[in-house]
Design goal:
Blueprint: H1 3-13, E1 34-39, E2 42-47, H2 49-63, H3 69-110
Antiparallel strand pairs: 1-2
């Protein structure tokens, strides 16, 4: 796929401009924060188990209305990170699907049945 076509295709899946992260959560470890899993042959980026546990801890505390200002800020930052991971996963999935579809189109053109 040409770079121009790939860029045009990617724009279709990004409905709004990407916001810039203001900061990373202070609790974010530099290593081991994200894990990569394979689903149907595609990489999927997810928060690690320890990060998910921290988010769940904050969410439970939030339900009890006991979050400090700092914890609320941290939870907001984790939500931003989750949005970015979701975006990355959608873009990867959609790009891989386009490449697969184009391969099928080329294959069918070369070998019509």
């Amino acid at each position: 796929m040409s770079e121009v076509r790939l860029l045009e295709h990617t724009r279709q899946f990004v409905a709004r401009p990407l916001p810039r992260l203001r900061s990373l959560p202070t609790a974010l470890p530099l290593e081991g924060a994200v894990r990569i899993e394979l689903e149907e042959g595609m990489p999927v980026f997810r928060a690690s188990g320890s990060i998910q546990a921290r988010i769940e801890e904050l969410l439970l505390k939030e339900q009890e209305a006991r979050l400090s200002v700092q914890e609320k800020k941290e939870l907001d930052q984790w939500e931003e990170m989750d949005d970015y991971l979701s975006l990355i996963n959608r873009v990867v999935r959609n790009l891989m699907q386009v490449q697969c579809d184009e391969w099928v189109d080329v294959s069918t053109t070369r070998n019509p049945t």
